[in-house]
Amino acid sequence: MLIVGALTPNRVVKLSFSPRSDANSADPSTQSITFGDGTLLGDGAEAEFLMQMTTGTPTISLTHWARMLPVTPADSKWSSLSGYPTIGVPDLTALQTSIVC
Q1: Which of 68, 33, 70 is nearest to 49 (CA)?
Q2: Are 40 and 7 in contact (CB under 8 A)?
Q3: Distance of alpha carbon 19 from alpha carbon 10, whole angstroms
Q4: H or E segment at 49?
Q5: Burial of 88 from C-beta contacts in 10 A (0-12 / 13-18 / 19+)
Q6: CA–CA separation, 33 and 2 (whole Å)
Q7: Distance of CA 13 to the CA centre of its chain
């Protein structure tokens, strides 16, 4: 997925997640875009995002709410994410890809 995001001066957050490949009629996951709307609260180390994201097709959809907090290598969550004790931030950032425009 390609993630594009914006943070407005009044702290409104907008995200979109779209497939990086062409739509495939046999694969519904390639036919939808996920939109996220939220708010940035706090500043610096105290900052957090409150987000709601919605995705789906005309036949099925999913809405998800999240409170997103910062994490640093000094935090226990860095190497063991809530709900995924064997996955940490380094595992996720290894999936990052450069986008050339």
Answers
A1: 68
A2: yes
A3: 29
A4: strand 48-56
A5: middle
A6: 10
A7: 11
Tens digit of pLDDT at every position of the chain (101 positions) = 778 899 999 999 999 888 777 767 677 666 677 889 999 999 887 899 999 998 877 777 889 899 988 888 899 888 998 888 899 888 886 656 655 55
| Residue 70 CA, distance from chain mean position | 13
The alpha carbons of the chain give a radius of gyration, in whole angstroms, of 16
Gap between the Cα atoms of 91 and 96, Å rounded: 10
Q: What are phi and psi of 45, to 5 degrees?
A: -65, -20
- Cα angle vertex 8, ends 17, 54, to 5°? 30
DSSP H or E run through 93: helix 89-93
Who's near 36: CB < 8 A, 6+ residues apart? 5, 13, 14, 15, 16, 17, 51, 52, 53, 54
